[in-house]
Every structure is written in structure tokens, then in C-alpha cells.
Amino acid sequence: MFKSAFISYSTDASTKAKQVSGYLEPLGVDTFVFEKNLRKNQPSLSRSVREQIEKHDAVIMILSLESRESKWVSHELGIAFGMNKEILVIKTSHNLLLPDYLDEYGVTVLKKIEELDSYFECKDLAQPSIPITPDKKGGNKMTKKRVFTGFDFDHDEDLRNLLVGQSKKPDSPFELADWSVREPMTGDWKAKVRTRIRSVDQVIIICGQYTDAASGVSVELTIAQEENKPYFLLWGRANKTCKKPKSAKSSDKIYKWTWDNLKSLIGGAR
């Protein structure tokens, strides 16, 4: 059972977020509800969000019409996945479907606040997990592919965070070894990127709405092509029009981002 939780929500679920916070308090769970006005006025917002999520054991998403499409909520959950935080989803309506980026994770979904009681009861009764001792001889340990991921730093950092979370799943066939950085393309910038890409097995390009204008991503893909690194493009935002980098070939397909697809693509399927 977690002792503290960061509550992720959109403005249409402000009341529900406060209700969840009030419900958890008597259960001994500390909560943090990020006030929406801070999202507009705080200069170092992303860093503040990351710090708060790091301080808490779990993240609770209030699933509403707005939060389902919210870039901020997906950003917060991406950070949580990257930090291996426990994640719960509480619906504001029974008919709401999970966003695509959560559908593959098998997160716990509660239809109403009162189900928190039974959730905690099940957690208390659960047997503690037994740590697995690594096989020093290798055994059946899966060799993970080292991946460099290119993405539009100004618009799609939340998508990178989601990919980080997926890389940490128990059955993940890959690990993120490196990714795009926000640096001016001067001096030896390209040489540094080339060194990074040479050290990995594959390159993943996350395509968003403005990737065609992201010159850094275009350079990264060009280098991957020059180095003959296997690469593929992912459709980052399910309900938006996503664009290829300018250096993409006409034959480069943007693949739907699902967990099964991602594992197949890492395995060489094209």
C-alpha cells in the first residue's frame, strides 16, 4: 500500500481530484493536488512536477474527457512510468476509455472512489514479492537492444517519457541508451550525436505534430541512415496528425504505437 500520491487531473475533474484527496486522507495517504493556476504561472513547471512525482509513492490519474487528451497529464504519467511509480486510474464516468498510451500498460482502473478501500485491502493481503537473484552465468536473461530515440524536444518530451516507462516494463526487449538533447546545432554537435548513435543497436524516431519542423530530429535520422542503423518511426499522438522528419524517406512508414507493435518492431518486423 502506498503512503503518498500525486494526483494528475484536468480542470474538468478538479472537484473529483479534491474528493479523492479527501477520501485518501483518513486512510493515511498523503496527497498532492497540483493547482491548475500553477501550470500557467510557474516558470520551471516541468521540473516542479518531476520533483513532486519523485517525492510520492504513486500517481493517481483522474480520467475525464479533458485529461484523456491532455498533454500535461500524459507528461505527468510519462514521468511516473520513468520512475517506476505505482499508477492508478479513477474514472469520472464508467463509459470513458483509457487513452491509447495507457491501454498497453495494464494499469489498475477504478470506476469510483469507494473502490480504493477494496484496492488497499487486496494490497494488504497480497504476498510480498520475492526478489529474483540474477543468474551470474547468464541463464535465460534476455539481451536487450540499446536504443537511441529522436523526438521534438519542444513539443514531445512527454512522449519520450512514456517510452522510458515502456523500456522499464518486465518484458521490455529494449533499453533507452540515449535520446535527443536540447543543444544548439553548432560546433561538434553532430559529431556527438553520431558517437551516440554508433553506440546503439537501433534508433526510434517519435513523430509528433511538429516533427517535420524539428531540425535536430532530421539530423539524427540522417546520421542513423548514414551509419546504417536499423530505425523506425512511431506515431506519437493517436488522435493527431503526426509528421515525419524532413530527412525521412518516402518509403518510411509511421507505425501505430502499441506495446505489441513496439516489441515486434524492436525484433525487426517492418
What does the model show?
The protein has 270 residues and is an alpha/beta fold. The protein has two domains: 4-125, Rossmann fold, CATH 3.40.50.10140; 145-266, 3-Layer(aba) Sandwich (Rossmann fold). The chain has eleven helices and ten strands. A five-stranded parallel sheet has the order 2-1-3-4-5, with helices on both faces. It has a five-stranded parallel sheet with strand order 7-6-8-9-10, sandwiched between helices. Helix 5 runs parallel beside helix 8 (157-167) and helix 9 packs across helix 10. It starts with a strand and ends with a helix. The model is unreliable at 125-139 (pLDDT under 50).
Question: Keywords, please?
Answer:
270 residues, 2 domains, five-stranded parallel β-sheet, 11 helices, Rossmann fold, alpha/beta
